[in-house]
Write a structure and sequence with these properties.
Elements lengths: L14 H53 L5 H22 L2 H11 L4 E9 L4 E8 L2 H14 L4 E9 L6 E8 L3
Antiparallel strand pairs: 1-2, 2-4, 3-4
């Protein structure tokens, strides 16, 4: 008995390998389907949470909007007053004290010293309480202050001579210092 196999006349398919391939492909497709379903469920949850947050924010904004008082002239005047007070504080803070002290140091004769500096922001003046060893130093200091051009006016408001030390104690008011 002679067995012969003619491959040309009949096609041979390995059905076992074909079924294993189909099963593998089906398993991969089921796994991808499950991943897509999980992703879709996660996105649904995220969308639901976002919608809940948007709803809560809308409720919060509407509750805040109902609590806002209506615009009134008195409210506007109070707002302008608080703004001007804040601007005044900012103007006071913007003054450069180091610049003032530097100017005074440059203008100060050797025989004059400053004992006290008192600013008055409302009148835009600075009052200097000073001590001088003699009248010539006092005159020189006042002349330098006046000719410096830093101040609108320089006023000698008070002067006293100490009998024991013969020192001059005087007060100068610098207007337009701020």
């Amino acid at each position: 008995m002679k067995f012969s196999l003619n491959l040309a006349s009949r096609s041979y398919v390995n059905r076992r390998a074909l079924y294993i391939g189909y099963a593998t492909l089906g398993a991969v497709m089921v796994a991808i389907l499950l991943l897509n379903l999980l992703t879709m469920f996660g996105m649904y949850q995220q969308t639901k949470n976002t919608q809940d947050k948007i709803t809560a924010l809308n409720l919060r904004t509407t509750s805040h909007q109902t609590g806002v008082p209506a615009f009134t002239e008195q409210g506007f005047a109070a707002l302008q007053e608080s703004i001007s007070a804040a601007n005044e504080v900012l103007e006071r803070d913007s003054f450069r004290w180091t610049e003032l002290l530097d100017r005074l140091e440059r203008l100060m004769p050797k025989k004059v010293r400053v004992r006290d500096i008192a600013p008055n922001h409302e009148q835009r003046t600075i009052t200097l309480s000073c001590e001088s060893l003699d009248l010539a130093a006092l005159k020189l200091f006042l002349d330098k202050l006046y000719s410096s051009g830093y101040y609108e006016s320089v006023l000698l408001t008070q002067q006293v001579i100490d009998d024991k030390t013969s020192h001059l104690y005087f007060t100068v008011q610098l207007q337009g210092a701020f």
